[in-house]
Amino acid sequence: MANAYIKAISYYLPQRTMTNEELVKEFPEWSVDKVAQKVGVYSRHLASENETAGDIAEMAARRLFEEYAIDPKSIDFLLLCTQSPDYFLPSTACVLQDRLGLPTTAGAFDYNLGCSGCIYGMAIAKGLIAAGIAKNVLLLTAETYNKYLHPSDKSNRSIFGDGAAACLISTEGMAQIGEFVLGTDGKGAEHLIVKTGGARQRTATDESREDEEGHIQRDDYLYMNGGAIFNFTLNAVPAMMNGILERNSIEEAEVDYYVLHQANKFMLNTLRKVCGIEKEKFYINLDNVGNTVSSTILIGLKDCLERQIIKLNDTVMIAGFGVGLSWGGTILRF
Question: Which of 48, 170, 182, 188 is the most exposed place for a label (fewest CB within 10 A)?
Answer without folding.
Answer: 48
